[in-house]
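Margin note: ligand = copper (II) ion.
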Amino acid sequence: MNLSRRHFLVGASALTVLPNTGGGAPAPRIIEARVGKVQVVSGDYPKTEIWGYDGGVPGPMIRARQGETVSRKLVNSLPQPTAIHWHGLRVPNEMDGVPGLTQDAVQTGGEFLYELPLKDAGTYWYHSHNQSTEQVARGLYGVILVDEEQAPDIDHDITVLLDDWRLSETAQITDDFGAMHDWTHAGRMGNYVHAHLSPALHGVQRNQRLRLRFVNVATDRIMAVSLRGLAGKLVAHDGMPVERPEDFEVLVFGPAQRADLIVDVIAQAGETAQVLLHERDAAYVLSELPVKGQGPSAARDPVQALPPNPIGRIDDVSGAQTVSLHMEGGAMGGLRQGTYKGRPMNARELVEHGQIWTFNGVAGLPDEPLIFVSEGEVIRIPMVNDTAFPHAMHLHGTHFQEVFPDGTLGPLRDTILINRGETREIAFAADNPGDWLLHCHMLSHQAAGMKTWVKVT
Ligand code: C2O
Ligand code: CU
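Resulting structure:
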């Protein structure tokens, strides 16, 4: 008889005392939001007190296969209520983690069980969605990797998390999360930009192939990044594979945006492969990997597209219901009035309520959705940025595509960066029923008014 794995296990169970699980499902893994201490800045700086999942920054990586369901029981040991949003995952609405829309915030000492079916492969992330300007700035985020059934052929799979900290001289997070001057301008910028690589590699070899998964977890900072000593293609935006791998030079990531790259090490042994950050006219080395010796002797085959995810792409938007979104406010925006919590207010009253940005004249989450949608319907939302700042607009629940002026449709994304003065249009097929937030992912702007929602029934 052929001793298959199954037979072996059956045989072994007769000799082993098995723990009594009571026959029920295994207890879900716990993810605890709590205070911790982390070495954010290296060198002689002290550890930074942070708020993190399981006390770390980033929180524990969640990694599973496409098609699996992962569950995590959030336990809140923070001094504030909280909730977790699973950014980019097409989860059932009640798992979306938005207090005030899909659940109540989890109080200190409370818990909430999240069950997340992983429909799509790719690079996603999770973060607090309560008082997020403060909670994300304090460190409440982590990465979710959903593995393709057929993973691409690579030597190293590296997540590059881009973060931005506002630290004191003793490397402590400064306690100024609600500063109006930040909220009315580009948001709360840090003074320490950092790239966190995981796993931490000590070196690579020439001609090795890397998958680099960039995730911008900064609350407000746009990150422009390029590579040196590495060459290849972009294969996914915001988790979703592109149909044809794209060339790139400088990649611009608004808050929450991601990209997967497949690149080969072209630097020579003895050199370094680098990730550069571009700020104004200067470039800084964010991260570098020494090239130690020769890997495969020849250059690799061309980069192939990743297998597509089971989400429909739209090919026709003619006749789709259209509702536009007019963004106003902020410094130099000349906002005169708006409605907040159903009350018309002038600019001074809005500021007194911490509100400085509006969508279609409304600051903060309106009672009525921006639009009512039937499941299966295609919706178009032209967004007019009538402000003096860029905004990173994020839709919960599904991915959208940009509609270009010539009518063609862009790649699937969940966050779009819209520069000052620009009008950009998105379209999506409402494939996920529920109440879904649409907001600026510059978390200071969101707190100061930039949010609305879409109802899919
Ligand atoms: Cu990444 Cu509404 O969030
Ligand atoms: Cu914004």
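The chain has five helices and 34 strands.
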